[in-house]
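Archive transcription. Copying these from loose printouts into the bound notebook so they stop getting lost. Printout 1 of 2:
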Amino acid sequence: MSKLDNDFLALKALSHNLKTAFGSTSVEVDKLVTMMALSKLAGNFYHIRTSLETLDKHLTIDDIERRVLNERNTQMIQAPKFVSATVL
């Protein structure tokens, strides 16, 4: 079961418990639980969106191209790993 399924089941249980405590026809309980669910979902989407924006800021095309060029230049500058006997 996913975390979202678990959260939904927890909210259903909370709704049931509150309705039992305050009366089975309590519309306010439904409103409260719905607002809690929407708040939770909004928080999850906000976290995902801000995480993607943060990732996007750190991985721009220029950064990726610069990193690739740096790796290529480093490989070209590095000395050979072995020297042939004929060169010596």
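Printout 2 of 2:
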Amino acid sequence: MVFLGRRVELEARPGYGRLILGSFVHIGNDTALRSHEGTLRVGEKTVFGRDTIVNSYLDVEIGPGALISDFVYIADFDHRTEDLHRPIKDQGIVKAPVRIGAGCWLGVKATVLRGCVVGDGAVVGANSVVTRHVPPYAVVAGAPARVIADRQAAAAVAERTREALDDIGVKTARAARAHAGESAD
């Protein structure tokens, strides 16, 4: 089962493109998933916000459980610009696969360009432009996007904080019992 918003565009050019949607994918209003000549694969339980565009001329894969916010743009191609005497539209395109890992979050108006890999669990900040690989569990922001935090390090700090707070609770309860004349254990 796939959940479609209003005015969703799902395009797989006959004989050229393949569009593969996992189960329980949610696609927001006015979103376009286009597989012109390549393959566009979307993992299960991925959520697309509104007005998002994904264009595939070669190969785009979005892992399961990804969160793609509103107004995001993902493409595995770009236009050639080398010939100054020909219009850019007549120079053809260059292609390179794009991978968005499992459990990623692409913020509002983020852009992921051709050839990029966004690692599992990574976060791309709002209005960021991804021009190179993003490590798993990294938080990136900016244009071009740069690593500003590491979710794994933050999770480790949070775990140590939880352990310390639990320890404080145990010691406080033990001290309260001792103060009341009860057994410390």
